[in-house]
Amino acid sequence: MRIDVQFADRVGIAHEILAVLARRNMNVVAVEVDSSDVFIDIPQLTPELLPSLRQDFLGISGVLNVVVVDVLPGARRRLHLDTLMTVMADPVMAVDAAGRIVAANAAAAAVTHLRESELEGKTLEELFGEAPLQAELLAGRFLAPAREVRLHGEPFLLEVTPVSEAPDSALGQTIGGVITLHAPRRLGGRLHALQHGGGGFDAIIGDAEPIRALKARATRVAVVDAPLLIVGETGTGKELVAQACHAASQRANAPFLALNCAALPESLAESELFGYMPGSFSGAQRGGKPGLIEMADGGTVFLDEIGEMSLNLQAKLLRFLNDGKFRRIGSDREIKVNVRIISATHRNLRKMVAEGAFREDLYYRLNVLQLEVPALRERPDDILPLARHFIERACAQAQKPICRLGPQACAALVANHWPGNVRQLQNVVFRAITMTDKRLLDETDLDLAEGAARTVAGIGSATAVQSSDDWDNSVANFERALLETLYPQYPSSRKLALRLKTSHSMIANKLRKYGIPKGSGN
Ligand SMILES: Nc1ncnc2c1ncn2[C@@H]1O[C@H](COP(=O)(O)OP(=O)(O)OP(=O)(O)O)[C@@H](O)[C@H]1O
Known about the structure:
The protein is of the alpha/beta class. Residues 2-71 form the ACT domain.
């Protein structure tokens, strides 16, 4: 039986409590003492013996109560910790100050091919076959950056957390460390889940015909396990389509990892993609690092803005696409993985091939399947549903009641040209929600002028004023250039009037005056 003898703190009281048991020749298998309790595990104690023992304890000055407990608190904590360790999917090991394993979970036993009891007492050097790792961790008192290690040929990211005598104090002595091993595959999967949530075709808002046709084609293309190239203007949702294709493929349970080829200089893009070995370049992590292609094994790597990839990296990617093999930077060893490449670009790759800026052989390798994402202006019916979707999200984020779009605002959104596509629409909405507390948004709340300012600046330089021009000629030149520039994007006098925030009849007169033909608006 296990009991809790509760007392008011007094010097020597715990000793007196235990002396009662000694006098009764009762064997004690565990004792835990804190400032107001002595918890005792007494196997011989039965319910019949308890009342007389309780009397003896209550006879000690300061003892307040004796209650039966199911388990001692320390043992309860150990049970919880053991269960926690067992259910953790990542291998975890606790080591002492000399780097010897003192505890390990079942996942650690599985990846080391040893029993938990066999792991205890082993050094990190014996486990990973790496003398520098052990020395480095001990020298740094278990404060070290994550690094890569291998167990039976499998790569893991090793993270270490120091265990201190006094965890809350900087002065506490380090008495060991906790080592966690992350399998790149699991790490990639979790990162993906964190960054992207679900990401199926339902996440692509839009019901206009061009987007319906895209979804229908994408659903078919998604399940064909071949490279896919997604083309379309910037901000049209190419990455969203790539995620949806991954989610609808047989690779859905493996990682989807993305690299923006335009965001990184060549050397960094290469190390992100292919990984590197220890010491392969200055600034590299000491233990080396697996690249996205390795981490995504079984899944998909999304190469955004592929048109910006350097010719050197294009050659390496082509080699990988040929046989699924690659080498990390600084390594002779070939690694084979099974990864689907989905790439995307807003550039005309055919033209780049003709100009020698993109490898033709790579173009054909990437472009086995192709999807084209329509520009937002090609599906004006989707503008308002998308705007309302972004309004809901922005209001929820800003913890505001949902706003509505007034008729003027709706008209302005539909008439806008959207060179930045859905991303621009999203930005316009977020900016409006942030800047106003109104419940009904009108046109002036939407900052649609940014694009206009750029266009007008362009027109200004294009119609550079001749020194001989008088006022009227200069104004007329400007008006003609402005209308000629905007008319193709707003192909009716009504749309153009909305865009320039003026009257329909004035625009119709000016178009007539400058002889700008109706056809030039299409
Ligand atoms: N149809 C859509 N439904 C909902 N959100 C969308 C849609 N299309 C795009 N978005 C959102 O617009 C933003 C831009 O989309 P995304 O990054 O996929 O575009 P992209 O074509 O890959 O752009 P870039 O070429 O600049 O990389 C994202 O926040 C995305 O969630």
